[in-house]
Amino acid sequence: MRRFLGQLLLLALPLAIGAAEPVSLPETKLLESSKDLSAEMVAGIDRYLMQATERSVGLRPSLWKRDFSSPEAYENSIQPNRERLRTIIGAVDPRVKAPWLEYLETSGSPARLGGSDKFDVYAVRWPALEGLHGEGLLLKPKGKILARIVAVPDADQIPETLAGLAPGVAPDAQFPKVLAENGCEVLVLTLVNRAATWSGNERLHRFTNQPHREWIYRQAYELGRHIIGYEVQKILAAVDYFASSAPADSPAAGLPIGVIGYGEGGLLAFYSAALDPRIRSVLVSGYFDNRQRLWAEPIYRNVFSLLHEFGDAEIASMIAPRNLIIEKSEVASVAGPPAVSDGRAGAAPGKISSPDLESAETEFNRARSLAGPFREKMELVYGNEGRSVGPGSVSALITLLNSLGVQLNQLAAPTSISKSAGANWNPEDRQKRQVQELTDFTQNLLRYAERGREDAVWKKLKMDSVGAYESSIPQLKEYFNTEVLGSLPKSDMPLNARSRKIYDEPKWTGYDVVLDVLPDVFAWGVLLLPKDIKPGERRPVVVCQHGLEGLPADTITTDPKASGYGPYKGFSARLAERGFIVFAPHNPYRGHDSFRVLQRKANPIKLSLFSFIVAQHGRILEWLSAQPFVDPQRIGFYGLSYGGKTAMRVPALLDHYALSICSGDFNEWVKKNATVDSTYSYMFTMEYEMPEWDLGHTFNYAEMAALIAPRPFMVERGHSDGVAPDEWVAYEYAKVRRLYDRLGLGDRTGIEFFNGPHTINGKASFDFLENHLHWHQPQ
Known about the structure:
By secondary structure, the chain is an alpha/beta fold. The chain contains 25 helices and 23 strands. Strands 2, 3, 4, 5, 6, 7, 10, 11, 12, 13 and 14 form an 11-stranded mixed beta sheet that branches. The chain has a 10-stranded mixed beta sheet with strand order 1-15-16-17-19-18-20-21-22-23, with helices on both faces.
């Protein structure tokens, strides 16, 4: 087969010009670009996302209805925004109703680790969610307690260094110790750190270089939870304890509660104060900034739809009229995840650097503007000529203490702290417990997520008749489109179709086709036209979708030596030879991190890679339906691997597809993304773009198939396909089969198991296409 793709296309045009058939399709312009269309597609989507991120700031006000008439009215007016923030960070599980504080033994020794003449230090833990605890240190003053504060260090700091019990933090940065010396009872939280020691499964002998924070993030994100939300819940559980632990008639009752955080702890303190009005004052050190480059930060900070509604300024406005102190501090830079070594790999890229004062100041001023008359209690602290201070500089801590009613002009003199005799505490054991608790909690969510999908989808489907069923689907599709995948604005651009002939085979001719979708975003694919189409004849179309890192040509080549032949077996060309019109689109999941970064840029503005793929396929269907040789009622979809992933999502949303065939991908998709107990799991691979927000409680593959029904749907599955075991595939497909049978449409669905690997089989699936697209090639 002659191929004229990529960089060779223009060189081939003189040959095509001399051929009998035209070099471009009727009613299209000649496609003259010599660029790599695959790379151009990814780059164009990238430009669109960067521009959309900048536009998001100006679009956020429409989601807020602030009422400044009184503090109470303001609190009520921002409550819907507060609840949305709570939801998107996954801080949604009920906390324990009777908070307590447990003093822990330290290797058989009493819980007291040490102290000074002003306070004692204890190892403690407290319940947050069922089976999930906050853990750290309690610094308890020996005299009168003036305020109660939750202190949150950076992720790679251990509480002992901030309490003065271990080296690693300069004395003037040991802010929990300083607060305790000045009359505050302080709970110092241990965070999940950025090491990768426990990021894996000992039983499976599979480990990764994912930081612990990413390890928890990946499994939790698929289930509508987040490492951010989990640790915010731990902070708020500490607030619960502070608020309820003192008897109503005791001097400690009603003491003001504050939160202070540094680095990653600054993020968590900031979000906690935004969610909980019981926190009278918060000091955020080394975090506050413009978030427009959230995509470049570590993936465990990725929050779906965050920038759609919230920048740091908007979050700050939810703390008003309470006290917010922003301290410009240097943070330990993070250049990326732990290095790949000893078989440990798969972590996502991402960096952390200290906030820039000019950027932070601009965002701070925007926060003051959003808070209107309640902005007076916002303060930005920095040194001379914009220099960094702290964390926990004298000025910032005095401001925090004063805002909590502890009136000081200067801090008490520092004291010398000593360890208790025999105290032996291993922070690494504590870190392992924290990681394991979060893993266990999340895996338990996974076990019961099916119940959530039952409530979210199946109970809303009407099974009385096919008509009733179809009437119950649109609302579910809308939710899937907007809240799970993310929806782009409908395009009002002309299609501006461009084409050029690139194949000339005995039975069919192939054309590159490019269509405009949105500014900088285009659709591209290869159209295969059988040569025996008669004037006025309208034939069915099969859209044949390639997989990860593929190209349209991979689905077309019939050369056994070609790299694409093994998985695809030339199924586009084979279908064209059977008389189908074929369109082989290019989807933008190509270019390794180049395309995966698209997902990172899309998520914060409530989009995903599939937002673009759905839009591209919408334009492809629009163009195909307008062609005189196409029957628009008979356009089917058939995709392998990532193309099978497309087969589950795109036809679920685009009714114009008459049927869908998912090859080499159908399985218990949620389990594949979130389980840590199987080698089939994406938890152990580099595909960090795979998790989709809260898919676990909304749409697994059976639920997506329910959105395709009552149109025909088929699964093609090789027994030795490494995507998933047969058991996962059969379990999930059984729900699909039951649905079609209940609707009386059992003949519209099928599954073919065959002896083979991750490949197109092209037997029962070809029969399925001919049957349901009503096509049999003329003899």
